[in-house]
Amino acid sequence: MRRELSMACFERASPALKEILLKLYRAEKHVEVDHHLYEFGSVEYHIQSPAADPNHNYLSISTPLLSHGVLHSYGFSPYTIRMLKEVCSDAVEIVEPPREGYQLTLKLDFSKIPSEKESEKVIRQISSVQAVILSSQLKEMLENVNSQDVSQGMYKPIKLVYHPREPFYVIKQQQKITAVFPMRFKEPSDVIIATAFFQELMDVGSSEKWSKAPPCTWSPIPPPELRGEPLEDLSTNGGFVSFDISSRHVEGKKLDKTVWSLLNFYAYVKNHIKCTRGFIQRRMQKRLENLVEVLHKENQEEEGDVKKVKENAGCRYVRKLVRFPKSAMLKQRCGEFSKRMKRIRFRIKIHGFGRFRRRWLTIPKLSSPMRYTKID
């Protein structure tokens, strides 16, 4: 038995579940499988291919209750069951009652899939069962947006749990339904990026180009519709994002698109923050590389200048030696000669050589041509 954990994504069909079912379908011989797969930390799939029944595979699903008001105590609502039967093909049969610990069990017969070309499409539909369950419950609420049983006030907010740590609210009002998302983030930098994104979303939504989209509002404090809700649900650091959904947003095919956008709003915001953070980090790294390159170039130029200065200083020193005065050079040579003579004197003693040296080997005093002589 294997257990895996899958991350959240924008696809309706579970990528991991689709991959497993395709492997079972394309296997040349029967493979016994007992596989557990988890998504979003709260959705569980159990795939079984027993040896006792090689012609069938079983898929059991455990999903969180999107709304206690929509789900019945004994299982899914008739609306959800009808949506499931419309999506699933002839190769899928709903097992009653479901396996213990799960809300839905499907029996899969791959031999009834018409051809290889249709297999991937059918398996994709089977892998999107969990998305059908969640969206069908929210569709049931939004389809009654124009119902006449709304009083002058408003209904009590319905708390919907798509992810255990990311609930949102649906408030039914006259001629519209308001969806409110409390936003929470772990990192302070994520709060800054998200706040800028929400403000830009409001500005874009208020433009004429997007006038047909559901109006969006953001506020750092809870909206009045959520008064009386538990304090832990209203404690946020990212504020509250609200969408007003009217009847024109749920007409025909727009209903499915609106529902899927609401269910994936949290995932969309997280993806935007992740991409923005990555973009900022890449820009900062690029700027740092450019700065290091400039500093390295300046260091090379400074080293070259210092080397040139040293070379020029050496040349000046040589020129000074070349231009050394002749009198000084003569004195230096005579001094060296006298030192040699002293060394010879210490070795060999000749009588009368002292007088000879003082008379004939005395170094004459040379005067500089620039010196002045006082005239009496």
Number of strands: 11
Order of strands across the widest beta sheet? 1-2-3-4-6-5
Mean pLDDT: 76
* N- to C-terminal distance: 126 Å
What would you say the CATH architecture of the domain at 2-137 is? 2-Layer Sandwich
The third-level CATH topology of the domain at 2-137 is Yope Regulator, Chain: A
Report strand %.
15-25%
> Runs with pLDDT <50, length 5+?
1-9, 68-74
State the name of the first-level CATH class of the domain at 2-137: Alpha Beta
Q: Which structural class should the secondary elements be placed in?
A: alpha+beta
Rg, Å, rounded: 45 Å
Helix content: 40-55%
- Tally the helices: 10
Coarse shape: elongated
Largest sheet: 6 strands, mixed
Helix-strand topology string: EHEEEHEEHHEEEHEHEHHHH
